[in-house]
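Field guide to reading this record: the first block holds the primary sequence, the second block holds the structure written as C-alpha coordinates, and the final block holds curator observations. Each block starts with its own label. This record concerns Membrane protein, catalogued under organism Actinocatenispora rupis.

BLOCK 1 — SEQUENCE
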Amino acid sequence: MRSSNPMLNRMLRTAVRDRVPAGQAQPQYGAPRYGQPQYGAPQYGQRGYGQPQTPYPTTPGMVAPEVRPMTLDDVVIRTIGLLVLTGAVGALSWVALPMTGALAGPLLAVAVLATFGVALFSWFRPITNPAVIAVYAVAQGLLLGTVSRVFEQFYSGIVLQAVVGTFGIFAVMAVLYKFRVLRATPMFAKVVIGSLAGLLVLGLFNGIMAAFGHNPGLVEYSVNGRVGWLPIVFTLACIVIGALTFVLDFAAVEEGVRAGAPQKYAWYCAFGLLAGLIFLYWQILRMLSYLRR
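BLOCK 2 — STRUCTURE
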Protein backbone atom coordinates (compact mmCIF):
# COMPACT_ATOMS: atom_id res chain seq x y z
CA MET A 1 0.00 0.00 0.00
CA ARG A 2 1.52 3.31 -1.06
CA SER A 3 1.03 6.37 1.09
CA SER A 4 -0.05 9.73 -0.29
CA ASN A 5 2.79 11.39 1.65
CA PRO A 6 6.12 11.23 -0.27
CA MET A 7 8.16 11.62 2.92
CA LEU A 8 6.21 8.81 4.57
CA ASN A 9 6.86 6.57 1.56
CA ARG A 10 10.57 7.06 2.07
CA MET A 11 10.20 6.48 5.80
CA LEU A 12 8.35 3.21 5.36
CA ARG A 13 10.80 1.96 2.74
CA THR A 14 13.61 2.59 5.22
CA ALA A 15 11.59 0.91 7.96
CA VAL A 16 11.17 -2.21 5.85
CA ARG A 17 14.88 -2.26 5.07
CA ASP A 18 15.74 -1.92 8.75
CA ARG A 19 13.49 -4.79 9.78
CA VAL A 20 14.31 -7.32 7.03
CA PRO A 21 17.07 -9.75 8.09
CA ALA A 22 20.34 -9.60 6.16
CA GLY A 23 20.58 -12.15 3.35
CA GLN A 24 16.86 -12.05 2.64
CA ALA A 25 15.36 -10.26 -0.35
CA GLN A 26 13.70 -6.98 0.51
CA PRO A 27 10.05 -6.73 -0.43
CA GLN A 28 9.08 -4.18 -3.04
CA TYR A 29 7.11 -1.25 -1.70
CA GLY A 30 3.66 -1.67 -3.06
CA ALA A 31 3.79 -5.48 -2.72
CA PRO A 32 1.69 -7.18 0.01
CA ARG A 33 1.78 -4.91 3.04
CA TYR A 34 4.78 -5.26 5.27
CA GLY A 35 3.95 -7.25 8.35
CA GLN A 36 0.99 -8.96 6.62
CA PRO A 37 2.41 -11.84 4.55
CA GLN A 38 0.44 -13.68 1.92
CA TYR A 39 -1.42 -16.84 2.81
CA GLY A 40 1.01 -19.61 3.57
CA ALA A 41 4.08 -17.34 3.72
CA PRO A 42 6.10 -17.31 6.97
CA GLN A 43 5.78 -14.14 9.04
CA TYR A 44 8.73 -11.93 9.85
CA GLY A 45 10.80 -13.50 12.61
CA GLN A 46 9.27 -16.97 12.09
CA ARG A 47 10.78 -19.95 10.31
CA GLY A 48 8.97 -21.56 7.44
CA TYR A 49 8.66 -25.33 7.38
CA GLY A 50 12.09 -26.81 6.92
CA GLN A 51 13.79 -23.40 6.59
CA PRO A 52 16.41 -22.30 9.11
CA GLN A 53 16.08 -18.78 10.45
CA THR A 54 18.75 -16.40 9.19
CA PRO A 55 20.41 -14.43 12.01
CA TYR A 56 20.61 -10.66 11.77
CA PRO A 57 23.28 -9.49 11.33
CA THR A 58 25.09 -12.42 9.75
CA THR A 59 28.37 -11.86 11.63
CA PRO A 60 29.17 -15.09 13.52
CA GLY A 61 28.50 -14.93 17.23
CA MET A 62 26.18 -11.92 17.10
CA VAL A 63 22.57 -12.14 18.28
CA ALA A 64 19.76 -10.69 16.18
CA PRO A 65 18.58 -7.42 17.74
CA GLU A 66 14.90 -7.01 18.48
CA VAL A 67 13.38 -4.00 16.73
CA ARG A 68 10.19 -2.90 18.46
CA PRO A 69 7.61 -1.34 16.14
CA MET A 70 6.23 2.10 16.90
CA THR A 71 2.83 2.49 18.51
CA LEU A 72 0.36 5.34 18.79
CA ASP A 73 1.35 5.77 22.44
CA ASP A 74 4.97 6.28 21.37
CA VAL A 75 3.94 9.17 19.15
CA VAL A 76 1.64 10.72 21.76
CA ILE A 77 4.25 10.55 24.54
CA ARG A 78 6.97 12.07 22.36
CA THR A 79 4.70 14.81 21.07
CA ILE A 80 3.64 15.78 24.59
CA GLY A 81 7.26 15.73 25.74
CA LEU A 82 8.33 18.03 22.91
CA LEU A 83 5.43 20.40 23.62
CA VAL A 84 6.41 20.53 27.29
CA LEU A 85 10.03 21.26 26.35
CA THR A 86 8.99 24.01 23.94
CA GLY A 87 6.60 25.52 26.47
CA ALA A 88 9.16 25.42 29.29
CA VAL A 89 11.84 27.14 27.18
CA GLY A 90 9.24 29.63 25.97
CA ALA A 91 8.24 30.50 29.53
CA LEU A 92 11.90 30.88 30.50
CA SER A 93 12.65 33.17 27.56
CA TRP A 94 9.49 35.17 28.31
CA VAL A 95 10.79 35.92 31.81
CA ALA A 96 14.59 35.85 31.53
CA LEU A 97 15.59 36.78 27.97
CA PRO A 98 14.74 40.51 28.27
CA MET A 99 17.12 40.64 31.25
CA THR A 100 20.06 39.36 29.22
CA GLY A 101 20.49 42.69 27.46
CA ALA A 102 22.92 42.56 24.55
CA LEU A 103 23.01 38.76 24.72
CA ALA A 104 19.35 38.48 23.67
CA GLY A 105 20.02 39.42 20.04
CA PRO A 106 22.66 36.73 19.36
CA LEU A 107 20.56 34.10 21.14
CA LEU A 108 17.55 34.85 18.98
CA ALA A 109 19.68 34.88 15.84
CA VAL A 110 21.03 31.41 16.71
CA ALA A 111 17.48 30.23 17.40
CA VAL A 112 16.32 31.46 13.98
CA LEU A 113 19.22 29.75 12.19
CA ALA A 114 18.69 26.50 14.10
CA THR A 115 14.98 26.51 13.35
CA PHE A 116 15.51 27.22 9.67
CA GLY A 117 18.26 24.60 9.36
CA VAL A 118 16.28 21.78 10.97
CA ALA A 119 13.10 22.67 9.07
CA LEU A 120 14.95 22.77 5.74
CA PHE A 121 16.69 19.46 6.42
CA SER A 122 13.36 17.81 7.31
CA TRP A 123 12.02 18.51 3.80
CA PHE A 124 14.65 16.22 2.29
CA ARG A 125 15.12 13.51 4.91
CA PRO A 126 13.00 12.19 7.80
CA ILE A 127 14.41 13.34 11.14
CA THR A 128 14.39 10.57 13.76
CA ASN A 129 17.23 11.81 15.98
CA PRO A 130 15.70 13.06 19.26
CA ALA A 131 18.66 15.38 19.90
CA VAL A 132 18.10 17.24 16.61
CA ILE A 133 14.37 17.48 17.28
CA ALA A 134 15.07 18.77 20.80
CA VAL A 135 17.26 21.52 19.31
CA TYR A 136 14.31 22.56 17.15
CA ALA A 137 11.98 22.58 20.16
CA VAL A 138 14.39 24.68 22.24
CA ALA A 139 15.02 27.14 19.40
CA GLN A 140 11.31 27.58 18.78
CA GLY A 141 10.73 27.98 22.51
CA LEU A 142 13.16 30.91 22.60
CA LEU A 143 11.40 32.58 19.68
CA LEU A 144 7.89 31.84 20.92
CA GLY A 145 8.50 33.21 24.40
CA THR A 146 10.21 36.37 23.23
CA VAL A 147 7.87 37.32 20.39
CA SER A 148 4.74 36.32 22.33
CA ARG A 149 5.72 38.64 25.15
CA VAL A 150 5.99 41.56 22.73
CA PHE A 151 2.54 40.85 21.29
CA GLU A 152 1.08 40.47 24.77
CA GLN A 153 2.36 43.92 25.74
CA PHE A 154 0.39 45.48 22.88
CA TYR A 155 -2.66 43.20 22.93
CA SER A 156 -3.56 41.85 26.35
CA GLY A 157 -4.76 38.24 26.29
CA ILE A 158 -3.71 37.59 22.69
CA VAL A 159 -1.27 34.79 23.59
CA LEU A 160 -3.90 32.76 25.44
CA GLN A 161 -6.31 33.29 22.54
CA ALA A 162 -3.68 32.06 20.06
CA VAL A 163 -2.91 28.97 22.15
CA VAL A 164 -6.60 28.08 22.51
CA GLY A 165 -7.16 28.66 18.80
CA THR A 166 -4.18 26.48 17.85
CA PHE A 167 -5.22 23.47 19.90
CA GLY A 168 -8.86 24.02 19.01
CA ILE A 169 -8.10 23.75 15.29
CA PHE A 170 -5.90 20.73 15.98
CA ALA A 171 -8.77 19.00 17.80
CA VAL A 172 -11.21 19.80 14.97
CA MET A 173 -8.83 18.37 12.36
CA ALA A 174 -8.36 15.23 14.48
CA VAL A 175 -12.13 14.71 14.61
CA LEU A 176 -12.52 15.32 10.87
CA TYR A 177 -9.78 12.80 10.14
CA LYS A 178 -11.14 10.27 12.64
CA PHE A 179 -14.53 10.23 10.91
CA ARG A 180 -12.90 10.30 7.46
CA VAL A 181 -14.42 13.63 6.51
CA LEU A 182 -10.92 14.51 5.30
CA ARG A 183 -8.64 11.86 3.85
CA ALA A 184 -4.99 11.97 2.86
CA THR A 185 -5.51 10.96 -0.75
CA PRO A 186 -2.63 11.41 -3.23
CA MET A 187 -4.34 14.44 -4.77
CA PHE A 188 -5.02 15.95 -1.34
CA ALA A 189 -1.35 15.50 -0.38
CA LYS A 190 -0.11 17.09 -3.61
CA VAL A 191 -2.37 20.13 -3.18
CA VAL A 192 -1.49 20.64 0.50
CA ILE A 193 2.26 20.11 0.12
CA GLY A 194 2.40 22.25 -3.02
CA SER A 195 0.39 25.03 -1.39
CA LEU A 196 2.50 24.93 1.77
CA ALA A 197 5.71 25.11 -0.25
CA GLY A 198 4.35 28.04 -2.22
CA LEU A 199 3.32 29.93 0.91
CA LEU A 200 6.72 29.36 2.53
CA VAL A 201 8.53 30.59 -0.57
CA LEU A 202 6.33 33.69 -0.73
CA GLY A 203 6.86 34.35 2.97
CA LEU A 204 10.63 33.98 2.61
CA PHE A 205 10.65 36.27 -0.42
CA ASN A 206 8.60 38.86 1.46
CA GLY A 207 11.00 38.73 4.41
CA ILE A 208 14.08 39.18 2.22
CA MET A 209 12.52 42.10 0.35
CA ALA A 210 11.39 43.70 3.62
CA ALA A 211 14.93 43.41 5.00
CA PHE A 212 16.08 45.63 2.12
CA GLY A 213 13.30 48.15 2.69
CA HIS A 214 10.85 46.96 0.01
CA ASN A 215 8.06 45.05 1.76
CA PRO A 216 5.67 43.57 -0.89
CA GLY A 217 2.94 43.64 1.74
CA LEU A 218 2.22 39.94 2.28
CA VAL A 219 3.26 40.18 5.93
CA GLU A 220 3.10 43.17 8.27
CA TYR A 221 6.10 42.82 10.58
CA SER A 222 5.37 45.70 12.91
CA VAL A 223 3.32 45.01 16.01
CA ASN A 224 0.94 47.96 15.73
CA GLY A 225 1.26 49.19 12.14
CA ARG A 226 -1.68 49.64 9.82
CA VAL A 227 -2.81 46.44 8.07
CA GLY A 228 -4.44 46.17 4.65
CA TRP A 229 -6.40 43.29 3.16
CA LEU A 230 -3.40 41.51 1.58
CA PRO A 231 -1.67 40.46 4.84
CA ILE A 232 -5.00 39.23 6.21
CA VAL A 233 -5.69 37.08 3.12
CA PHE A 234 -2.15 35.69 3.09
CA THR A 235 -2.25 34.82 6.80
CA LEU A 236 -5.69 33.23 6.43
CA ALA A 237 -4.31 31.03 3.62
CA CYS A 238 -1.43 30.02 5.91
CA ILE A 239 -3.87 29.06 8.67
CA VAL A 240 -6.02 26.94 6.33
CA ILE A 241 -3.07 25.10 4.77
CA GLY A 242 -1.38 24.72 8.15
CA ALA A 243 -4.53 23.08 9.52
CA LEU A 244 -4.78 20.72 6.53
CA THR A 245 -1.21 19.49 7.06
CA PHE A 246 -2.44 17.74 10.22
CA VAL A 247 -4.36 15.34 7.98
CA LEU A 248 -1.05 14.26 6.44
CA ASP A 249 0.51 13.98 9.90
CA PHE A 250 -2.34 11.80 11.18
CA ALA A 251 -2.05 9.60 8.09
CA ALA A 252 1.71 9.27 8.66
CA VAL A 253 1.11 8.07 12.21
CA GLU A 254 -1.65 5.66 11.23
CA GLU A 255 0.22 4.14 8.30
CA GLY A 256 3.49 3.96 10.24
CA VAL A 257 1.83 2.00 13.04
CA ARG A 258 0.03 -0.26 10.56
CA ALA A 259 3.22 -0.95 8.59
CA GLY A 260 5.21 -1.80 11.72
CA ALA A 261 7.79 0.98 11.35
CA PRO A 262 10.59 0.85 13.95
CA GLN A 263 10.03 2.75 17.17
CA LYS A 264 12.52 5.49 16.26
CA TYR A 265 10.12 6.74 13.57
CA ALA A 266 7.74 7.84 16.32
CA TRP A 267 10.15 10.78 16.68
CA TYR A 268 9.60 11.69 13.03
CA CYS A 269 5.83 11.72 13.51
CA ALA A 270 6.09 13.71 16.76
CA PHE A 271 8.34 16.25 15.06
CA GLY A 272 5.79 16.71 12.27
CA LEU A 273 3.00 17.36 14.76
CA LEU A 274 5.15 19.78 16.78
CA ALA A 275 6.20 21.73 13.70
CA GLY A 276 2.59 21.93 12.51
CA LEU A 277 1.35 23.22 15.85
CA ILE A 278 4.08 25.86 16.07
CA PHE A 279 3.47 27.03 12.50
CA LEU A 280 -0.25 27.31 13.16
CA TYR A 281 0.34 29.23 16.40
CA TRP A 282 2.47 31.83 14.63
CA GLN A 283 -0.19 32.39 11.97
CA ILE A 284 -3.06 32.66 14.46
CA LEU A 285 -1.07 35.05 16.67
CA ARG A 286 -0.40 37.27 13.67
CA MET A 287 -4.01 37.12 12.46
CA LEU A 288 -5.35 38.08 15.90
CA SER A 289 -3.01 41.05 16.00
CA TYR A 290 -4.25 42.15 12.56
CA LEU A 291 -7.87 41.93 13.62
CA ARG A 292 -7.29 43.89 16.85
CA ARG A 293 -5.61 46.90 15.21
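BLOCK 3 — OBSERVATIONS
Residues 131 and 137 are 10 Å apart (CA to CA).
The radius of gyration is 22 Å.
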